[in-house]
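User: ok so my PI wants both of these folded by tonight, can you help

Assistant: No problem, let's get them done. Here's the first:
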Amino acid sequence: MDRPLLLHVPEIPLLNKEQFLKYKQDAVTIVDTRQKELFVKGHIPQSLNIPHKKSFATWAGWLLAYDRPFILIAAAHETEELTRKLMRIGLDNVIGYITNIDDLGIQVESTKVVDIAAVKSGINNPDIQLIDVRNTNEYQGGHIKGAISLMWGNLEKNLSAIDPQKTKIIYCQGGDRASIAASLLKKNEVENVKVYLGSMNEWLSQGQEVEF
């Protein structure tokens, strides 16, 4: 049953540096809602990228525990809408939010982005593991040759399928789920993770072959 429309949502607090660092030390989940292009350029280690887009609530419902608190990284003007979307699916453990990751005294990290040429060269490379994180029916409808199927929402249950010796290239349809998946893998301390943000949309638009 759908939850009733929330006309008023509680205002979540803006956390100061000391508050945020204390929660981070306590291993509170950090949800970075910025778009994938910003996230890959620089983010807080162990943070989870769930971009604020149309599917935000769906993605959050898959990935966040309903009984564990979390912090948002978001623009101030977006926090009410984000909180509303989260509360409507029962995720009401938002401690607070921050807007700027550069003033925390934390060394940010980036995610390596690869282009279509790198993906093409990785198809027959034994040192590369191509991972398609779309849904199974999308994968079966055509995927990059040699890619394995690991649906983004089930990644943490299937970490054993990730080859620790290989460089991982993650892709989806339009790049958002690939960024989410890459952040999940890095949160689970998987190394050598790269993301193909162009993903299948670019691959197909460039006339590249797929296998079924």
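One down. Here's the second:
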Amino acid sequence: MKVSSLRYRLRFHLQEVDLTGDEIVVGRGSLGHVTIDDPMLSRQHIRIDLSGSEPTLEDLHSRNGTQLNGRPLVGRATLQDGDRIRIGTQELVFLSPNAVKKNHRTTCGLTFCVGCAVPYPSTSAQCPHCGAISTEQGVSTSVRDVAASGWTFHLLSQVVDRAIDQGRLADAERMMSRGVSELEEQIEEGIDIEPSRVKGVAECAAHLGCVLRSARWLEIGARLYGRAGEPPSREVLALVDELPADVRLADAMSALRHAGPAEVRTSV
């Protein structure tokens, strides 16, 4: 006997989403039943099937895969109350009929706030967490008024490192270009950016430069370390030391090793 799908839900941060119908597709694309604007998600990432006697979960050949309760999902798996579904950088919790409370607000789409990096219902005019206002382009008009500087600074390291690990270097470079451009634009406008966030982007740029053996990205990293007033981490310096002797990289490697405040440069 089929259980009514109206009683199943997904918990996502502070929101709960009704799962209506026999099949629910979750992903980044607008054609899915539940849309999450996370760059690590595929357009159609997972499918939840409620047509049988037991709900099941299936990964739709997503680029970054799916984890169920901390383990990679292979094939189909039966869902139970409280199961944790990890997709991209997000974690969803599956709720069975017995666990669903009444009178919760239903949301059909979630927007990933570029102001504080916390998802909120796409039907809301602004992010309830930081007050950022979404535009038709999906960009928060008040992102520069909040302490956090958007997903670029909050998740850039995680997203770029994941892309590098998977060999998606073109994607990593594209995301870094976007992040650096946004960061330097805000700095040029005189917006106060926390040094730790600037250093985080510098670390990403330097890491990418080492992987690609790119003087351009090493120089960008050195420049951002200077803007942050902090030296490279030991991990980054170790990667630089592993680079082969190459006259094309020599100046950039030297700039990176000596990046940071003056008192640090004299001791490196």
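The radius of gyration is 22 Å. The first strand starts at residue 9 and ends at 12. Good luck tonight!
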